[in-house]
Design goal:
The protein is built from 6 helices and 4 strands; from the N terminus they run ββαβαβαααα. With 138 residues, the protein is mostly helical.
Amino acid sequence: MAVVDAGGLPIGLRVCTAVEHEVEHEVKQAQDTILECWTVELPQRTIADRAFDSDALDTSLAEYGVEVIAPHRKNRKPENKTQDGRKLRRYKRRWKVERFFSWLGNLRRLLIRHERKVRNYEGFAHLATLIILVRNCF
């Protein structure tokens, strides 16, 4: 999981398992990723995909003053809608996150996970993030 700023540069990165699909587990991973950003202040709003359309995530991040903008899942009931059209117009900026993952994919070591230990892979992911920051900031 990654958090990028308005310019598309990474401000947070976390390597998570993709095995568990429990809602509580994913909410905890997303919350930890946002709360462990490298910036002084937390982002005011986060733009996420449909997988993060969760009332539990909305309430847990609202305690920290972070708004989650995610399109509704197809199985959400109409009376439980939380997003209006104005907030969802910001969703079209999600391409900046996808561009960051594309930059990570350009680094061959991260394209295919060769490391057996997660900590080694996470170290290479952080190194790649630093390389991306240096390339785009200077």
